[in-house]
Design a protein that fits this description.
Layout (H helix, E strand, L loop, with lengths): L10 H10 L4 E6 H12 L3 H4 L10 H11 L12 E4 L1 H21 L2 E5 L7 H13 L3 E2 L7 E6 L2 E10 L2 E5 L4 E2 L5 H12 L7 E5 H9 L3 E6 L4 H8 L5 E4 L10 H11 L2
Helix pairs in contact: 4-9, 5-10, 6-10, 7-8
Protein name: Phosphatase
Organism: Sporichthya brevicatena
InterPro entries: Phosphatase_SCO2771 (IPR031423)
Length: 269
């Protein structure tokens, strides 16, 4: 995987693209879905918590306030249906912050884990970041390859296993790469490193439970999260996640190319 083939956009050009592609601005995630997710994380729902072991005293009103501040959704709890928004300037600011963290990792030739629970959308972003960090002299870690677990689905339990593509971890049912919020795979990867006598990663670039479990373990985490994924934003509030980039995490993969080019350019990679 090489750098995105598109030109590096300016901030204004990227803002326009983010809104046109619905990565930010008026996104596809509906308001009722967002609010339902905020209520789930408040109840301590494990799947919604992304493995972060969040403060149990969070209230729905506080979660909505955090999401309005960090993501740009409407702060008005009387709005319960229709579209919702992600503020593109918050996305851009978070990309700038993420670039600083990634640049430091590159300069330090850090040990890095990269993983995604959204292979149908965000995979090209992760592949490009992993390849750029590797080219900069970082060590890309690939622990626990093939590790298996059972994940609950609406029709019952299904086996998942960790698979790597070009140093990016995902889960697979052996026939397909799968969407997941689970924190179990990242926990298994960190445990595998510990059993091998290796140090924890210096940086984790990830989403969903991959990012949450790494943050709880004390890793420096750059995460990507949608407006219906409050856990990582709450993790940032609690100091467990370094940077969270708000975006729609499941648009067509090629639409992320300008954003990825911007992120890598800002990182000096």
């Amino acid at each position: 995987m090489t750098r995105p083939s598109v030109p590096v956009p300016t901030r204004d050009e990227l803002r326009k693209h983010l809104c046109e592609a619905r990565i930010a601005g008026d996104v596809a995630t509906p308001r009722d879905n967002n609010l339902r997710s905020y209520r789930r994380v408040v109840t301590g729902d494990e799947y919604a918590g992304f493995g972060l072991d969040l403060d149990p005293d969070w209230t729905f009103a506080q979660v909505l306030e955090v999401m309005a501040d960090r993501c740009g959704v409407s702060p008005d709890d009387r709005i319960t249906s229709g579209p919702d928004t992600i503020d593109p300037d918050r996305t851009l600011d978070a990309l700038d912050d993420a670039a600083e963290v990634i640049a430091r990792a590159a300069a330090d030739r850090a040990r890095v884990l990269v993983a995604t629970g959204h292979p149908a959308g965000l995979l090209p972003v992760h592949l490009a970041v992993a390849a750029a960090l590797k080219a900069a002299g970082c060590t890309l870690l690939t622990p626990a390859a093939g590790w298996r677990y059972e994940e609950w689905r609406r029709h019952g339990e299904e086996y998942r296993e960790i698979r790597y593509i070009a140093d990016v971890a995902m889960v697979s049912n052996r026939g397909e790469l799968c969407h997941t919020h689970s924190a179990y795979p990242m926990r298994a990867m960190l445990d595998d490193l510990e059993r091998a006598g290796e140090a924890p990663p210096d940086l984790v670039v990830a989403d969903h439970g991959w990012a949450g479990a790494a943050g709880l373990a004390g890793a420096t985490v750059v995460g990507f999260a949608d407006s219906n994924d409050p856990a990582l934003f709450l993790g940032a509030e609690e100091g467990k996640v370094a940077v969270v980039v708000p975006l729609d995490d499941n648009v067509a993969p090629h639409l992320y190319e300008p954003m990825t080019a911007y992120l890598l350019d800002k990182s000096g990679l």
